[in-house]
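Quarterly update from the structural biology core.
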Amino acid sequence: MAKKVQSVFVCQECGYESPRWMGQCICGAWNTFVEEKIRPEAEDKRRRTGSRSSAGRPGAAGGIGSVKPVPLASVRSGETDRMDTGITELNRVLGGGLVRGSLSLISGEPGIGKSTLILQAAANIAQRYGTVLYVSGEESEEQIRIRADRICETLPDNLYILSETSLDNVILQLESLKPVFLIIDSIQTMFTDGIESAPGSVSQVRACGNELMRIGKGNELPVLIVAHVTKSGELAGPRIVEHLVDTVLQFNGERSQDLRILRAQKNRFGTTNEIGAFEMTQQGLAPVENLSASLIEDIGRGAEGSIATAVFEGTRPLILEVQALTTTAPQGFARRTALGVDSRRLNMIVAVLERHAGISLASQDIYLNIVGGLRPEGTSTDLAAAMAIYSSYSRKAPPAMTLAIGEIGLTGEIRSVPHIDRMVREAERLGFQKVLLPAGNAARIRQQTAMEVVGAASIQEALKITGR
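Predicted structure, tokenized:
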């Protein structure tokens, strides 16, 4: 007797399922529902405890009720059993290496270097730990071999490549190879026979993600998933995948530049917002150990509209260069363009300068840029952005080798920022001579550094350093 094919309407924004079409989803999005057909399986593997993806889990083969609760103190911690990827910056972002049984997701724009990075990691893990399976649904074995010959010094015999888009066939290969590391490139190309919708649809991505999670957790197999991004840079597919995985990594960079930044947006086994830096070379991605020095190599020239600042990303401080350019707007509304800084934050800083510093910027086009293509988190760059804008507007260059750190409030006050002591130590290591800080941090920092420390309580006091 033929099985009845069922239909379900799925929101492409949040993954919410409804038995009927809805104009507006519960997430607030309009006209995002698409119909997808689901073919019921003869045996529901998602509810059956003794499924093949549960292999290796104690008591799994006994069926429902065979898995018993255990004392938490008796559970072996995976913290001491991480897998070294052989790439220092990748280990940093992961929190020390790959945790066995973890499910990690990496995304980024096409051509940014995701496949290069994971192929390098796959070769290193294969040499150190055992069999690695690299599943590619986008490239053939020959294409991957061409890249491997360029970026890998040696190709281990236990690094296997599989060009496949059927997750069911991938699972069959897993049972025979029994790898120690699995890579899926990419989740949008995978499909399972239990769902009739096309690969990349909400239902297929969710179903394949759930199956990969059961495989990884049940066999203590670390799984790395590559995902596509939308035109706006957000992760493509249902948001449930981000909640499902243990680690979400974002790979960013400008194609015209060699610098690449890997950022951890979610990490259940480490620090969130941790970043790793890489340089794209002919031999693949090379870790950049001293990122601050590479970002401020021209900061000592003392140019107008340029000043250094510091941010704290994950577990390390970074010294950045902030550049600003102001020009008279020809007519109409003035432009406000920000690269690496939130445009709303830029508008707020401009409003504070006009109100509390008495600077008329209404007729000025303002361009603000974080050198190197970084997009730092936090508000510690506010003061440097304000000083760079004023420096360009007044045609007065800030003192050379000066660092500005602080958050600007709406009333014009300079507010303290966390981890400022570690930022100052990093600046002193790089040869900076003067640092402008919030007044609340200045007294304590003076006792910890040999640099000249200037405290400012308001934006008016801070601008005096430029000779206003």
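The chain has three domains: 1-43, 81-289, 293-466.
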